[in-house]
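Troubleshooting: if your tokenizer reports a length mismatch, compare against these two reference records.
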Amino acid sequence: MLKLYASPGACSLASHIVLEEAGLPYALQVVDARAGVDHLQRIGKAGLLEHDVAGEGAGARTGVELQHGPPPGRGAPRGRSMLKLYASPGACSLASHIVLEEAGLPYALQVVDARAGETRTEAYARINPLQRVPALDTGEGVLTETVAILTWLAERASPRLLPEPGGLEHARAHEWMALLSATLHPSFRMVFRAERFARTPEGVEEVRGAALETLLDLLQMIDGRLAGQTFALGRDYSVCDPYLFVFYTWARRAPVAPVCPPLLNWEAHARRVYDRSAVRRAMEQEGLSPL
């Protein structure tokens, strides 16, 4: 029987509703987040995570569109327009860039330097109203948000870069991506961009300090989850791995790196990911330093 751990009125309500809609037998375990139990400890005890911002590049050519074709013998599917990825060097969009290289699909890369304010222009707002990267023009419409783009690309790669739908491993992949997108990325944002969340210098430092504590806990939790794993899902490489790789590179930056304990499992994972030629090509195209 399924068992859902949920807090009243929290985002878990969506999962609770879907369980009711599906008509599946389940048990509901209420875990009240408002009662003050530490979030990470609670997740660990419940077992929900058991196998449960800045871009920084040097030398990428801003505003330049680079064309990329498939490897010899692999052509674009008939009737499909060339894809166009909008990315900022070293940002979370690097994951989508890597997966495009892995998939061997023909695409154009449009470098949009977030640090130079290029995502804040009216022209880019017409591409993505949230004025963030990545954005992927599929020829049928523009996709935004990393998880959506990675999923869309994974299903078109050969071989697929996600497990087949319907199984636990497919859900596990989305669990990884949701953790990175909805929990880890915002923690990095509050450390790197603390000035967006406070109005005084004292407030900025208070936000950054508190966010850094949370971030370090998250980094160590993820490092533990990668113990004994070749890749995020075990032996098979998936879109989760380049996404994890991006955040490992962020953890090597100040002010995180000087206070971050060793992430030995994650470092070994990042080295395996970096050994892939698609990863090296994407980093070179964005003007990023080698790992």
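Reference record two:
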Amino acid sequence: MTRRRVRRSPTTQIARGRQPGMLSLSERPVHQATLANGLRVIIAPLPHLHEAVVGLAVRGGPRFENRRASGLTHFLEHCMHAGTTSYADAHALLAAVETIGRGLAATTSEDDCRLELFLPREALDRGSAILGEMVMQPSFVRAGVEAERKRVCEEQLGDDDHIDDMARALVFAGHPLGRPVMGTEEGVRRFDEDDLRTWHRHIFTARNAVLLFVGDVEPSAALRLAKRDFGSMPSGRRLGPGPAPRFHRGRPAVGFDDAEDEDDGDEEALQTELHVCFRAPWRGGSAPAALEVLTSVLGDGMASRLYGEAVFTDLHMSGQFGGSPVTNIPGGCPPGPLTPLQKALEFLFFDLSACVAPDNQAPPPPPPPTLQ
């Protein structure tokens, strides 16, 4: 699809709240390059910021794991910042990062793994070198691996995403996307150094990765750092997504989990949790902007219409919409009759027309609280 760029006069820019000469994010240039080893580099200068981010993303996570390797990407992500060739352990590595910048962020999702450093511009050179060493020279020292193994097992015990894992297991039944990102405790306790090194060689390759420089960066300097710190990354190959999930067009899948909370020993859970999930476009789908607008209208925020219907009842809304192939409607209420939740769902599914109003019409005020 061809996009036409519309030129606006300074008067129009000021009327829209923009300074003359200021570019919107969509109008700012994005520089792209491919290194000799096949690594894609994306550089997005945002000179009005006072910070730079250098990050590497690779294809990984449940979508690319078999059953035996379930959770291996997430465990590898933890172990990669447990030490490198130059930094003996996680403390030394993280101390080096925090000495020059704001810190390290590491995330594994259903189909990718990301490592990011947040830095002032003057520390970008050093930060890029540290990230390059993390990516290509993790040490996997035994003490560090065992510490991360315990940490991941503790994460699994207190996993706040349990209901999300249940929902994806129903929606993507029989497909890798239905497996939990963290895998199972059995798998995490089984993984050894050979598993980590083999999987690291498999997914942390140039053709399977994207390197990003965003923020207060100068494009030519960023490209120079990319060649210096990531130019020797093994080329490897780009992993394919495998077969697409199959969806049954019959009745909705429903799952229940009435397991007691082992920590408190109570016979009844403190809340009943309900998630209603829909197939939705992925971040790179054909209608991400429309999905963002729709989910914002439905309830992505405490000032949304759905919150207005629910906030004065015993219903509690939580979670985040969008960002995955499944858009979920999360909520919880005390156990017993689900009347408040039923009312909110009735509003969601049958009264959506009430959410649509002209831009110049203020939303109706919320109902006054009922005094007990």
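Descriptive notes for reference record two:
- The beta strands are 31-34, 40-45, 52-59, 103-108, 112-119, 209-215, 272-279, 326-333.
- Residues 1-21, 261-268, 317-324 have pLDDT under 50 and may be disordered.
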